[in-house]
Design brief:
This protein is α/β, with parallel strands linked by helices. It is built from 19 helices and 24 strands. The strands form four sheets. Strands 1-4-10-15-16-17-18-19 form an eight-stranded parallel beta barrel, surrounded by five helices. Strands 5, 6, 7, 11, 12, 13 and 14 form a seven-stranded antiparallel β-sheet that branches. It has a five-stranded antiparallel β-sheet with strand order 20-21-22-23-24, covered by helices on one side.
């Protein structure tokens, strides 16, 4: 029977045609998917290389190395390192409970510019000395930018110690008062004067500072009469300064000794003289700061999408007070009835500097609470100091394109009757003015880190964010859905919970940051003014657990203060002067010098960044993971990531467990 094309044979032919078409479509889809997979595989292999490079820095046994490599490779395939966005426009989809990185400073990396600019010179005679070099600072700072560039985290570099220190602070902190007392007792005041003059040269104090008289009033109280081209004054100083002689191994294996002291001055006593007109004062940068190189460094940080901040220090050194400006500080004129008393007699019992005026009068200019800082009179001369601080900030934004400032002792910047009523409108008006001008004139967001510790002060600062945001929206400087919290503040509770080993308090502090302080509080385990983790957390596992806790919080976008020094050592070559001492031993337990052991280790590396690469804490910071949520269960904090990794940190023991779906638990390398 013949087919007419519509019978059984025709049906088979139609079905074959459909089958061929389906095969063609399926082959095309398979080809298309293969092409996509090949492209993806290239990225996959690249991310595996990144993961393996990270894990190879971790000293593990063979089995753990393979397991950790697989875990990291899996993490890299799911979420490769994020691409940097343009400045101020960084956005990432994340759980609503987590902070917005675009509204935060993230990890604030402290770069001690005074320390990073220092070169150890081997005299090859068994001694060594320190030399300051601006080119060394450029090399070291560039190394830090390169070190943190691949972390995939929006962060902030804090240029600490960028201001030139005053000559008064170099005397106050650099002198060895025990040595001075011995010289005065054995050889008299003229020998003491010669010793002070010799130290003046060693501290880099210029010829314009002339010491006319020196006398020890008691073992820790030195009286000096000083004359410069702008002032004639008398001061009494005495401070438990640090001096040490450190023995270390040079690069070629020889033993050498290095004298360490504090004659480089106090970073919080800057060399500045308030001009008669507030808008004319010059804020001096350290001798080791090359402005062109520093601007280049800041531009490179901005190109990576990061921020750069520095210090706002409203305190003026005694070296900056003159006949033209003494009235701007808290002061008192010496009464006629006391005219018979010498400067030496008056200063035996008082904390101040005595300034001699051209008409023969003398004026006591009072210290803030330190022998190298004066107390500005905000109550009677608030308008001057308002303009002075605004000029200070604007000058550094213009010169260096700085993104923000850490406000030293912000809780002291208030006015009120006799200074007893704390009215912070003085500070608020200054900061509001700066922020609005920066947005209006430059389209630039400026941030301020407040050094405050009490809940009362933090509540004030937190309210300013809401108040200012409303004003900026009304004036068309901020969009209705834009987030901007320019005011951040120290949050000491986590540090205190860790230091006291009170896990309940630590949990409360963490919950507050995670729930209410995600856009304002700055957490820390240490800074240049506190105990280094290695000093107060002797249990290594516990210390590493706490460091990992802060690192993971910083990678999530929370504001955290991180001193890279703490990842590898405790001390500095040029630490912050002073500090806390152990009463039983008299030894300093904060602001410590670098030990001989760590100094021997330091000289092996070309840069600080290369040394930091050996740190396991840095390896964790550089790990390519993206955190989706954070929770607290009893005394454990739990981080869940996009890569199906769960990280649990036991806050009592520091024990850390990484769990990957399908692989089970893997103990962290930290």
């Amino acid at each position: 029977m013949e087919s007419n094309g519509h019978g059984k044979d025709g049906l088979f032919m139609s079905m074959n045609m459909i089958k061929l078409k389906k095969e063609f479509i399926l082959k095309f889809i398979a080809f298309f998917l293969t092409a996509i997979l090949l492209l993806y595989d290239a990225g996959y292999n690249k991310n595996i290389a990144i993961a393996e490079e990270t894990v190879l820095r971790i000293p593990l046994d063979g089995a753990k190395r393979i397991e950790k490599s697989l875990l990291l490779a899996h993490a890299a395939t799911v979420d490769p390192l994020p691409i940097r966005r343009k400045r101020y426009s960084y956005r990432r989809e994340r759980a609503s409970s987590l902070p917005n990185p675009a509204n935060n400073l993230g990890p604030i990396i402290i770069l001690n510019t005074m320390d990073l600019s220092t070169v150890i010179v081997d005299n090859r005679d068994g001694t060594a000395r320190l030399k300051t070099d601006s080119s060394e600072l450029s090399k070291q700072a560039d190394g830090m930018l390169e070190l943190f560039r691949p972390t995939g985290t929006v962060l902030t570099y804090y240029l600490f110690g960028i201001l030139k220190t005053s000559w008064a602070s170099r005397f106050v902190h650099g002198l060895n008062y025990e040595r001075a007392e011995t010289i005065a007792k054995e050889n008299g005041n003229q020998a003491l004067l010669e010793y002070i003059r010799e130290r003046k040269a060693a501290f880099g104090i210029g010829e314009n500072v002339v010491i006319n008289k020196a006398k020890m009033l008691n073992p820790y109280r030195l009286y000096l009469e000083i004359e410069t081209d702008k002032q004639k004054c008398s001061m009494v100083m005495g401070y438990p300064t640090k001096n040490d002689k450190v023995s270390f191994m040079t690069q070629d294996g020889r033993q050498a000794e290095l004298d360490l002291h504090e004659g480089y001055g106090n970073m919080f006593s800057p060399d500045v003289e308030p001009a008669k007109e507030a808008g004319q004062s010059v804020i001096n940068l350290g001798d080791y700061i090359d402005v062109i190189s520093m601007k280049g460094l800041i531009q490179r940080a901005h190109k990576d999408g990061n921020f750069v901040i520095m210090d706002l220090i409203p305190w003026v050194s005694p070296s900056g007070v003159t006949e033209e400006n003494y009235h701007l500080f808290n002061h008192s004129v010496i009464e006629e009835s006391a005219e018979e008393r010498s400067d030496e007699d008056i200063l035996t019992w008082e904390q101040s500097v005595i300034l001699h005026l051209s008409d023969g009068r003398r004026v006591r200019v009072h210290f803030r609470d330190a022998q190298d800082q004066l107390s500005p009179d905000f109550n009677n001369h608030g308008d001057y100091w308002h303009k002075y601080i605004v000029h200070y900030i604007k000058q550094l934004i213009e010169r260096l394109d700085i993104d923000g400032f850490r406000i030293d002792l912000a809780y002291e910047l208030h006015t009120g009757e006799g200074g007893n009523i704390e009215d912070y409108d003085f500070l608020k008006h200054i900061l509001f003015e700066i922020i609005e001008n920066a947005l209006r004139e430059k389209g630039k967001r400026v941030y301020f880190v407040h050094e405050v510790y009490e809940q009362f002060h933090r509540d004030i600062v937190r309210k300013w964010n809401e108040e200012l945001t409303g004003q900026l929206r009304q004036r068309g400087l901020l969009g209705g859905d834009d987030e901007y919290s320019p005011f951040k503040m120290y949050f000491p509770d986590i540090f205190e919970g860790i230091q006291s080993r009170n896990t309940d308090d630590l949990v409360k502090a963490l919950k507050w940051v995670l729930e209410g302080g995600k856009d304002t509080e700055i957490s820390y385990a240490a800074n240049f003014d506190e105990f280094a983790p290695a000093t107060y957390i002797h249990d290594e596992k516990l210390r590493k657990g706490y460091m990992l806790l802060l690192i993971l919080m910083s990678k999530t976008g929370y504001n955290t203060l991180i001193y890279p020094r703490d990842l590898i050592r405790e001390g500095d070559l040029k630490p912050v002067p002073g500090g806390k001492r152990d009463r039983s031993t008299g030894k300093f337990v904060t602001h410590k010098f670098l030990t001989g052991e760590k100094l021997s280790e330091k000289v092996k590396y070309r840069t600080e960044a290369e040394w930091l690469k050996t740190s396991l804490a840095y390896a964790a910071f550089n790990r390519p993971i993206a955190i989706e949520s954070i929770s607290i269960a009893e005394h454990k904090i739990i981080f869940n990531t996009r890569e199906n990794i769960k990280i649990e940190i036991d806050l009592d023991t520091g024990e850390t467990v990484w769990t990957l779906t399908g692989m089970g638990a893997v103990e962290t390398c930290l």
